[in-house]
Amino acid sequence: MDNINTDFLVTIIFIVILVSFIYWYAGYSTRTGKLEDANKNFIPDSWEKNFMWFFSLKGLIMFALGIALGYTIHGFI
After folding, report:
1. Domain count, the chain
2. How many CB atoms lie within 10 A of CB 3?
3. CB count in 10 Å sphere of residue 27
4. Nearest to 70 by CA among 22, 17, 9
5. What is the pLDDT of residues 42-63, one digit of tens each?
6. CB of 56 closer than 8 Å to CB of 3
7. pTM exceeds 0.70
8. What is the pLDDT, as a whole number, of residue 1?
């Protein structure tokens, strides 16, 4: 049972880091001018066409990942 919990914790941590990096890089690439952002919402225009749902649900996604991470860490402490 411990191995399953450890695997789940590592998976959640990886997903949190990956999603956080995507949000950070979207802002970084538009602030530095590497990618175009016509409406100044810190989301590259090329990403907005296909992944707008990902950025519009940012608060909910991060909230859900935070709850999952907290619940998983609580099992280890």
Report:
1. 1
2. 7
3. 14
4. 9
5. 999 999 989 999 999 999 999 9
6. no
7. yes
8. 58
Please report which helix (H) or strand (E) contains residue 44, including its range: none
DSSP state of 56: H
Mean pLDDT of 31-47: 92
Give Cα 64 to chain centroid, integer Å.
10
Query: What's the rounded Cα separation, in Å, for the pair 28 and 22?
Result: 10
> Could you tell me how far CA 43 lies from the centroid of its own chain?
13
Instruction: Please give the residue range of the domain that contains residue 19.
Output: 2-74
Tell me which amino acid residue 52 is.
M
Residues 6 or more apart from 26 whose CB is under 8 A from it? Answer: 42, 43, 44, 47, 55
